[in-house]
Design brief:
- The chain is an alpha/beta fold and about 200 residues long.
- It has a single domain, classed as Vaccinia Virus protein VP39 (Rossmann fold).
- Helix content is about 40%, strand content about 20%.
- The chain has a seven-stranded mixed beta sheet, with helices on both faces.
- Helix 4 links the parallel strand 2 and strand 3.
- It is globular and about 45 Å long.
- The relative contact order is 0.15.
- Its EC number is 2.1.1.-.
- GO terms for molecular function: magnesium ion binding; O-methyltransferase activity; tRNA (uridine) methyltransferase activity.
- Belongs to the class I-like SAM-binding methyltransferase superfamily. Cation-dependent O-methyltransferase family.
Length: about 200
């Protein structure tokens, strides 16, 4: 598995595919390993790197549904995943995540959001009916290159993304159903625990 992950890291560098950075990876693994989820929804497959990280640290019967808009990336992800022992446990759904979420029937122990940054709040609201009572939502890149919590104005091309990510953080930090921790290392990883989960710990 380590060899496959290294191969994927090299592929991501060569082909300029964004995958979770080293510090974000550590927090993701820590969060997943503590939860040991059985059902996971991932929004944003890319090449399947995070899918495999999650699978490796989940319960043995893990089933992951991962959503990807880009057909070429989804095909690449499938090739990599097929070289792992999780090929039968990871399902890739191609298309607009905001549309595909509405078609889902399962309830998920953990949701990992790593797709269009300007759509995080939309994704969050749509997944709530599918999130277990003690579920966890993990969102990557919420500080977006440091702009989200900087006093300086972001470049114009990032203004909408930064504004929407600030709103996402505001909502999850003040949501009555969740307790949220923002890990600032890396590019910012927001981990939101549904409160039933907190009461148990």
């Amino acid at each position: 598995m380590e060899y496959l992950l290294r191969e994927m890291e090299e592929y991501a560098v060569v082909h300029h595919v964004p995958i979770i950075n080293v510090k974000g990876k550590a927090f993701l693994i820590e969060t997943v390993a503590a939860k040991r989820p059985h059902r996971v929804l991932e929004i944003g497959t890319a090449i399947g790197y995070s899918s495999l990280l999650i699978a490796e640290n989940s319960a043995d019967d893990i089933q992951i549904t991962t959503l990807e808009l880009n057909e070429e990336r989804a095909a690449t992800a499938r090739k990599f995943i097929n070289h792992s022992r999780y090929s039968e446990q990871i399902t890739i759904l191609l298309g607009d995540a905001a549309v595909n979420i509405d078609t889902l029937q399962d309830v998920y122990d953990l949701v990992f959001i790593d797709a269009a940054k300007g759509q995080y709040l939309t994704y969050f609201n749509k997944i709530l009916p599918h999130l277990a009572a003690d579920g966890v939502v993990v969102a990557d890149n919420v500080l977006f290159r440091g702009y989200v919590r900087s006093s300086e104005k972001p470049p114009r091309r990032y203004k909408t993304i930064v504004t929407r990510l600030k709103k996402y953080i505001e909502i999850v930090e003040n949501h009555p159903e969740f307790e949220t921790v923002i890990h600032e290392q890396g590019d910012g990883l927001a981990v939101s625990y549904r409160r039933k989960n907190i009461e148990k710990t």
